[in-house]
Specification:
The complex is a heterotrimer of chains A (about 325), B (about 750) and C (about 180). With about 750 residues, chain B is an alpha/beta fold. Chain B contains 24 helices and 27 strands. The chains are: A mainly alpha (about 325), B alpha/beta (about 750), C alpha+beta (about 180).
Chain lengths: ~325, ~750, ~180
């Protein structure tokens, strides 16, 4: 029999018996970051393709990223144990630290997402403006809006790489930690990006009032789901072919305490069921599109929760 | 191994638009000075040091207490010049400041009182508490004679109170350290070599070539010098042989571990003697010169072959032969260690005799790598009138045990229980520095005695269980806050150490010397306490010894040259042992005269019945008995004990790691608290093991209350050593319950 | 100059003196620790092996905690000692997640704390508190770059291992076995 235990004193809050340094705020933030990245990516892409008129939901969806990123940021800061020192993030840029990348990308993307929204605000939400009368109160906004609209193309050009970095970063943040075998694989970046794009597409579907638009994003979403499933299979095969610690990490997801959550909620309800529903819908049957879209979003959120929680349970054996 | 000059990792901050702000530019957000201070607090302060010696166990290592400018004790570090610790304290000594900082300490005198029919304690002034105690001292003396007031003690406060009691006319004094711990080895070695083992043990472990431990778990018992020297022995490549049914830490460091069946040690020892004598491996010259009774011994051990022992001990004959040969090859630099806590099965003095005889056969007594001739320096007695002669005392109480050399706590307890035929009735106790509830076996008997007492006063630093039974509780300040007697202990050379208060006593606690003097003054014994402050006593003694208090405050420890001759026997030197014959007595006429076995014999002890396991217990290196469990530093290290169970047993009973279980012993006694299971291969399948000292049931000990189980409460059966009254504690068997047996009794 | 610690598991008895010494020396709050002791048992009765190890930050030559720190609070100083500057630390936990040894913890005051090899004592020419207090003298500390130092000699002449070398951190606490 092999036995390993602490002889003394290890009873540190959030570390013993297993790591629980990162809780729901991190999971939530990873999800919101991915969601915002997805929406911004599509919005910028279709704008550059000159198709923003065809797809009005994209403009409406522009409301989501600023809110999501702000809430995500708040969640992040809430999770810091030394929040008074948050400003220290912006005194330096650490090229090897995903956390540093994330802080800087957020610092640039969040205001940009606000500006992006503002440039569509009057045309997309005339009702709100009639209530708020912002442009009446603040004369300079006219000029500002004009300036933004003329520079929208540049904003879109900036948003595409930024949103991709943001989406990839939510995965790389975890995969950079080789101490946590479940996270430490290169698939996590693309996987989280794909998952973020897919939740973004699903959010656009939910906001869409236009059949053609929904159809397009259903197709996109379906494609993304297929890629995502492929990446997850790839990831699990990677664990399976990996070292002892990775095998143990895999056991958490396959045949361990997270199995039901992972296979039931993420893979089945969050990926397979929406994919089947979207196929059925594309074949011309009537399916309430909101259902698969909502499932995708919930699945995406749960996926991050599972990865964050389970990853912290995995460790090296001495 | 190749080490390249490594490059330091320095990722220079990328100049992102002049983002590298200087700290002063962002003063609004700048670092919180409080936090910074907290992080650097300990490192910047100037610390001053005070000489002390440790009181967390009885080893009494000399140390320095470091205090900061606010008069807070920050750390305790060993004194480099001290032969007890060589500048390195054990974890308990290092954590000793937890005794001082523990917020659960006794803070003020308490007097038992009845409020609305409920017995409770009320806080009292020292004046009132001491007056009450003095009154009781006088009353007991008048009614029954001073002999009926007993003192049960441990450690430094004991010596001050002992002086008070002797002045008062009572020699009814005992400490559990004798009959519940090391008594039998003193008797066994005393009968053989005419000398106690004593503390610290005069074992030359650092130079030994072969160390044999029999149930002694050095490394788990942190007897500092012993642990340090065992480490040296490992460095020197000494052979270590450990006999223990449990795979102890020491066993894991051993080249040979003999996993003996519990309660069969004497069979192994006799068989070792058989091998040494039959194979003529014993130290012939030494035995011829210094020992008597060899021929009787040879005849006595002839039948005890390794094959005979194998059937009893389950140790393979070849292992017995191999280890015996190893001991002989290393002799005389071989130590068969006497052990320390040796009250196991009731024939413990005889087992220790066997150990002593083995050492005698190998010639280790008085030889390098064996046992050295210890020496201590005597401290001049501070003048006081002669003590009155008590009519009876500890000796008479334990008179049925002819070889007892100290008070036997269990006998004091028995003499306290009212009985027509008892010529030595004890009516009142004073207890200092020992938690009898967790220290003595047969808790019911202890409680019966306590209930019969007319008066019980307890002196302690912590609200131990025993304080809950007292009429008066006196809060003693900790060793870091008081003067105490000069430490003089045996070692390779004599040394003394002083204890100087590092800080003023916390709360309303007082030193034991002050308590003794106050009581003495009140009962007309002022002449015995002819000083205002104990500092004067130490100063007077130090001056007599050719040093001074000022010097000792600076150095803490003073080492002296040996005056009694060399550490070891010279080649062919004549030597008079302290036995009646002046020789090492393999055959003991003293024992034979009183009708005892003159040479050790193996007797069979009961083995656990079906469904029961032998309750084995021992020490955790982080704790001293039950007294340190609440210490904030030490409870951080180990806050509860676990029940070690062999995987086979766990399979049979379907026990899982960390599952709470309750224990029920052969007499139906239940453990008060659950204890978590540790499934481990380190224990035999016929035994369970737990660390001693846990399972405190006084809620005032906030950290220790209800943590783990108490072995003491499950030790209801003892086997008494007929030679010296030691209480064998290892004959208790427990069954393991997975359901809470107290559930039905809870209201 | 490359500081390293060498710990002889053949002598360590797991008494945890190193843990208390660290706590009192460095004001580590109760309930937390910068070092700790691990016990590993293998085999089956009566053929057993027991290893006791005093563990702490390994002051890795390739420290993932320093790499992933977003503010530079975790950094390496002369001698290869990894330190955390409390008032640069934001408590994001990235370093804790990245450490395969679980050697870091969040101090109740918010910043991340860990073993410093008692670098404040080294500056005064003293040994780390844990090393200086160990009753079995099973811990050694010194300069790995000096081939004649006690630790270099020990590593030259004895079998040793490091913890989780497969994590690729190049740890600098060595265990003699």
């Amino acid at each position: 029999m092999q036995e390993e235990l602490f002889t003394s004193g290890r009873n540190i809050p959030n570390i013993d018996p297993s790591l629980q340094i990162w809780h729901w705020p991190i999971s939530l933030y990873l999800f919101l970051g991915g969601l915002a990245a997805g929406i911004l990516f599509f919005a910028a892409l279709f704008y550059l393709m000159g198709k923003e008129k065809q797809y009005p939901a994209l403009k409406k969806a522009a409301v989501i990223p600023p809110i999501a990123l702000s809430v995500g940021l708040l969640a992040l800061v809430y999770d810091l144990t030394h929040p008074l020192f948050t400003w220290q993030l912006y005194t330096t840029f650490r090229i090897e630290s995903p956390m540093s990348w994330g802080a800087w990308v957020l610092l640039i993307t969040t205001p940009l997402s606000f500006l992006w929204l503002f440039s569509f605000y009057r045309s997309t939400f005339p009702k709100w403006e009639s209530k708020l009368k912002l442009f009446k109160k603040f004369k300079f906004l006219e000029k500002f809006e004009k300036f933004l609209i003329t520079n929208r193309t540049y904003m879109a050009y900036a948003l595409i790489p930024l949103s991709i970095i943001l989406g990839v970063y939510t995965g790389i943040l975890l995969s950079a930690f080789n101490a946590r075998p479940l996270w430490n694989n290169a698939i996590l970046g693309p996987l989280f990006l794909t998952s973020g794009l897919s939740t973004g597409a699903a959010a656009i579907i939910l906001l869409s009032r236009n059949r053609e638009e929904r159809h397009l994003f259903s197709k996109i979403d379906l494609g993304l789901i297929i890629v995502e499933i492929a990446l997850i299979i790839h990831m699990i095969m990677g664990y399976y072919a990996g070292s002892q610690v990775q095998l143990e990490a895999m056991d958490l997801l396959v045949g361990g305490e997270f199995t039901l959550m992972f296979f039931g909620f993420v893979i089945l309800l969050g990926l397979l069921v929406p994919a089947i529903l979207e196929v059925i819908e594309l074949l011309g049957f009537k399916v309430p599109v909101a259902v698969p879209a909502a499932l995708v979003i919930i699945g995406g959120l749960l996926f991050r929760f599972i990865m964050v929680e389970a990853g912290q349970l995995t460790r090296y054996l001495y | 191994m190749v080490t390249s000059r490594r490059k330091f990792i320095k990722i220079s901050a990328l100049g992102v638009g002049g983002i590298t702000l200087s700290a002063s530019a962002v003063n609004l957000l700048a670092s919180n000075p409080l936090l910074d201070a907290a992080a650097k607090k300990n490192l910047a302060k100037k610390l001053s040091r005070t000489a002390t010696y440790c009181e967390v166990c009885f080893w009494k290592c000399a140390a320095w207490a470091y205090t900061d400018e606010e008069g807070d004790i920050k750390k305790v570090i060993g004194n480099d010049d001290d032969p007890h610790c060589n500048g390195r304290l054990c974890p308990r000594g290092t954590g000793g400041l937890g005794m001082y900082s523990d917020e659960d300490r006794l803070k003020t005198p308490l007097i038992r009182t009845t409020i609305n029919g409920e017995e409770t304690y009320r806080e009292a002034s020292w004046e009132e508490a001491l007056d009450l105690i003095a009154e009781k001292f006088t009353e007991i003396k008048q009614k029954y004679g001073p002999e009926s007031f007993a003192l049960l003690k441990h450690g430094s406060p004991g010596s001050h109170l002992e002086h008070l009691f002797k002045a008062y006319g009572s020699d009814t004094i005992a400490e559990p350290a004798y009959a519940q711990c090391r008594g039998p080895r003193e008797t066994g070695f005393g009968l053989t070599f005419g000398s106690w083992v004593g503390s610290p043990e005069p074992t030359d472990i650092r130079d030994t070539k072969c160390l044999v431990l029999i149930g002694s778990h050095i490394g788990e018992n942190m007897h500092n010098t012993q642990v340090q020297e065992m480490s040296d022995a490992i460095d020197n490549g000494a052979t270590i042989i450990t006999v223990d049914p449990r795979f102890s830490t020491a066993a894991s460091k051993s080249s040979h571990w003999l996993p003996i069946k519990p309660a069969t040690d004497i069979a192994l020892l006799l068989s070792w003697m058989h091998v040494l004598i039959e194979e003529e491996l014993y130290n012939k010259k030494y035995v011829e010169k210094y020992a008597i009774g060899f021929d009787e011994l040879k005849a006595h051990v002839k039948p005890f072959t390794p094959e005979w022992a194998y059937g009893i001990t389950t140790i393979k004959p070849e292992s017995i032969r191999e280890t015996a040969r190893l001991m002989a090859a290393a002799a005389p630099a071989t130590i068969i260690h006497p052990g320390r806590h040796v009250t196991w099965y009731g024939d413990d003095s005889q087992r220790e005799r066997a150990i002593a005889i083995l050492n005698g056969l190998l010639g280790s007594w008085g030889n390098r790598g064996g046992f050295y001739f210890k020496e201590k320096i005597s401290i001049p007695k501070y003048p006081h009138p002669a003590y009155p002669e008590p009519k009876w005392g500890w000796h008479e109480i334990g008179e049925q045990y002819p070889f007892a050399e100290m008070g036997n706590t269990s006998e004091v307890v028995k003499a306290t229980i009212p009985n027509e035929d008892n010529p030595y009735p004890i009516k009142a106790w004073m207890i200092a520095g020992t938690n009898l509830i967790n220290t003595l076996p047969q808790r019911e008997q202890t409680l019966e005695a306590i209930n019969a007492l007319e008066f019980l006063v307890v002196v302690d630093t912590m609200p131990m269980e025993i304080t809950g039974y007292a009429d008066v509780v006196l809060p003693e300040c900790t060793y870091l806050e008081r003067y105490d007697g000069i430490r003089s202990a045996t070692n390779r050379h004599p040394s003394i150490a002083v204890r100087i208060p590092a800080v003023k006593p916390k709360y309303n606690s007082k030193p034991a010397w002050w308590i003794s003097k106050q009581i003495g003054d009140r009962i007309g014994l002022g002449d015995y306490f002819n000083y205002n402050d104990f500092e004067e006593v130490i100063e007077w003694q130090l001056n007599k010894m050719g040093t001074s208090l000022d010097e000792m405050k600076k150095i803490g420890v003073k080492n002296f040259e040996r005056t009694s001759g060399p550490l070891f026997l010279e080649e062919g030197q004549d030597y008079e042992f302290g036995t009646p014959s002046g020789k090492i007595e393999f055959y003991s006429q003293q024992l034979a005269d009183l009708g005892f076995d003159p040479m050790p014999v193996y007797t069979h002890h009961p083995q656990p019945p079906q469904g029961f396991y032998r309750l084995n217990y021992g020490r955790s290196p982080m704790h001293t008995f039950s007294r340190t469990i609440n210490n904030p530093y030490l409870s951080d290290l180990k806050s509860e004990n676990t029940l070690w169970v062999n995987p086979k047993v766990a399979r049979i009973l379907d026990l899982k790691k960390d599952q709470p279980v309750w224990l029920k012993n052969q007499d139906g006694i239940l453990s008060a608290f659950p204890i978590k299971v540790r499934v481990t291969e380190r224990i035999r399948w016929d035994s369970v093991y737990m660390y001693h000292g846990f399972g405190h049931n006084n809620k005032k000990l906030t950290r220790a209350f209800g943590k783990g189980a108490s072995d003491a409460e499950l030790i209801s059966k003892i086997v008494v050593d007929p030679l010296m009254g030691g209480t064998g504690l290892r004959g208790n068997f427990v069954s393991i319950l997975t359901e809470d047996p107290h559930k039905n009794t809870k209201v | 100059m490359r500081y390293a610690m060498v710990i002889d598991t053949l002598k360590c008895v797991g008494c945890s003196d190193c843990v208390v010494a660290c706590q009192t020396e460095n004001n580590v709050p109760h309930g937390y620790c910068r070092d700790w002791v691990t016990e590993a048992v293998s085999g089956s009765y009566p053929n057993l092996e027991l290893e006791l190890r005093s563990e702490r930050c390994n002051h890795c030559a390739n420290p993932p905690c320093v790499r992933c720190c977003p503010t530079g609070a975790s950094h390496v100083i002369e001698g290869g000692i990894v330190l955390v500057t409390a008032d640069q630390c934001i408590g994001c936990g990235a370093c804790i997640e990245s450490c395969p040894y679980d050697a870091r913890y969040q101090h109740p005051d918010g910043y991340v704390d860990k073993c410093t090899f008692c670098h404040h004592r080294l500056e005064k020419g003293q040994l780390p508190a844990c090393v200086s207090v160990c009753p079995t003298k099973c811990m050694y500390f010194g300069d790995l770059d000096d081939p004649n130092s006690e630790i270099s000699q020990l590593l030259k002449n004895r079998k040793y291992k490091t913890l989780s070398p497969e994590a690729g951190t190049d740890p600098h606490v060595f265990y003699l076995i």
